[in-house]
Amino acid sequence: MAQSETKQAKRRGRAARHAWVAPVDPCPPGQIGGMYKPLTEAEMERIFTTALDLLERLGMGEVPARLRKDLLAIGATEDTETNRILFPPALVQRAIDQAAKSFTLHGRDDARSITVGGNQVYFGTGGAAVQTLDMETGLYRPSTLSDLHDFTRLQDVLQNVSWFTRCCVATDVPDVFDLDVNTAYALIKNTTKPVATSFTLATHVAPIVKMLDIAAGGAGAFSRRPFLKAHISPVISPLRYGEDAVDVVYECIRHNIPVSCITAAQAGATAPATMAGFLAQSLAETLASLVMVQAIEPGFPMVFSNWPLVIDLRTGAFTGGGGETAVLNAASAQLSNWLGLPSGVASSMTDAKAIDAQYGMEKGLTSMAAALAGGNLIYESSGMTAALLGASFEGFVLDDEMHAHTYRALRGVEVSEETLGFDAICQAVLGEGHFLGGQHTFEAMERDYFYPKLADREEPRSWAEAGATDAWTRARARAREILESHHPEYLTAEQDRDIRAAFNIL
Question: Which domains does the chain have, with CATH numbers?
Answer without folding.
Answer: 3-30+412-482 (no CATH), 96-411 (3.20.20.480)
